[in-house]
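Reading a protein record of the kind used here takes only a little practice. The record below shows the convention in full.

——
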Amino acid sequence: MKKGIIILAAATLGLAACNKEKKGAGGLLYTIHHSAGNEKIKEGDIVKMNFIQKNDKDSVLSSTFDSETPAVFPAQKKMYAGDMNDVLTLFGEGDSATFKVNLDTMALHSKQPKPEQFKNDKYITFTVKIEKVFKKKTGEADSTFNKRATEFFQADYKAASEKRKAAEPAKLKSYLEDTKLETKTTASGLHYIIEKPGSAEKPALGDTVLIDYTGRVTKKGKDGKYKIFDTSDEKLAKAENEFKAGKPYGPQKMPVGGTIPGFTEALQLIGKGGKIKVIIPSNLGYGEQGAPQVGIMPFSPIAFDLEIKDIIKGKPAAAAPVQMPAPVVKK
């Protein structure tokens, strides 16, 4: 029994030591949460890394974990002790850590003021997971290394993309079950609920509509809610802390056919005064690229609430030319 207690105590002490914050050059602070014991990163290595970036208020500024798009970049030569490139040399493949880069030191060496978004902060904080460190072989030519790295990361991206694509149907199903929405589905795969049909006349390609809209991602945030990525409703934007100064709110004009395919299709299902709720799969939305800058992940469905306030008729869309068969010449 005593031996078991001693082993457990030793393991606990080891874990605590691994998670102890340490000081580095230039005011750097870092904590290694897990060390895989692999060779450390050095200049010239190609690094694949997931990270969460925060300010001193612990607000998340960006997260590749959420966007599902890890950063891939070459490790550069450090500009000064304690900079972003210097701290990477503390980690190897498989390691996870948190580090804080001192912004005053950065400003001193770059001779540039702190970025506006960090003007009241002392640190910029990163929590990272080093997914892959691609290293040059001894005596390998630069051209051979670059070719090998390009082929590896292209294959890696393709495999990750296929995995995300295969997971989309489950994402859509989970969203529908969680929100308890009983939708109809068009031939293209658009899910919809017409809440109010509106006028008999519906918008067509070439028309312009005046609409109110709210778009949400279909992956829950840490608060258990589906985040708005765009809305015309100023009151709602403020209520959900998504207000953007300078953005025009209120009903917006949009050309029918000038948006993503799922949005265009949804507009043509209702008339003036109509309301519709739609879930747009990625093949009718932002596809394999997504729009990570607003929180739309690759191969992810998105949800919209739409209301058509007015329809401004335009020129009918030109019909595609009919291809006539070549005439048969009698001999």
